[in-house]
Design brief:
This protein has 193 residues and is α/β, with parallel strands linked by helices. The chain is 34% helix and 26% strand. It contains seven helices and seven strands.
Length: 193
């Protein structure tokens, strides 16, 4: 029986895997999240997911399947990662308000036998215009410093600012679960017969 390992401390990714009914164990390591400057959009998310997985490769047992993921927000060609502080979070949300942006989540599944599956999903997110008071309220009360683009679609700002999505909502939360489940089924996970 394969063993699923999640290399993420994201509460959202943990909840999504739990909601899928999958048993998993969490593994954590500090991994550098810089990427080559020539990469763009989905390439960045896929590179970071695969790069994170490579840090665990030597620790895997033959029946292990490691799942790593990375989510980025792109406004035009600008990548908005996790904000360094509250001021940067306010700046990011000010840029996003009243416009659409794209969210990419890259995923890497690495087996203990060395098979690597890397893919990404993209969702377009439309924000209504927000006031500075609303933006500061959100940053102060919801502390989105651990989220790409300085927001969580499942938070208050998602309730009041996201007017439309094109693509997977769960991808915006940090894991394209429809695609993850499809790939994990091929590796022996899924619903019991």
């Amino acid at each position: 029986m394969p063993r699923l390992l999640l290399a993420s401390n994201s509460p959202r990714r943990k909840q999504l895997l739990t909601d899928l009914g999958l048993a998993y164990e969490v593994r954590l390591k500090e991994v550098d999240e810089t990427y080559p400057p020539h990469l763009q959009r989905a390439e960045i998310a896929e590179y970071l997911a695969a790069h994170k997985a490579s840090a665990y490769a030597e620790d895997l047992q033959p029946n292990d399947v490691l799942l790593t993921a990375d989510t980025i927000v792109c406004l035009d060609e600008q990548v908005l990662n996790k904000p360094a502080d509250e001021q940067e979070a306010v700046q990011m949300l000010t840029l996003l308000q009243g416009r659409f942006h794209d969210v990419y989540t890259g995923v890497c599944l690495l087996t203990g036998e060395g098979q690597q599956i890397v893919f990404s999903d993209q969702t377009r997110v439309y924000f209504r215009e927000l006031t500075e008071v609303e933006i500061r309220h959100y940053v102060r009360n919801y502390r989105p410093l651990d989220k790409a683009g300085a927001y969580g679609a499942q938070d208050w700002i998602g309730l009041v600012a996201v007017t439309r999505l094109e693509g997977s909502y769960f991808n915006v939360m940090g894991l394209p679960v429809h695609r993850v489940y499809e790939e994990l089924e091929k590796l022996g996970f899924g619903v019991e017969q």
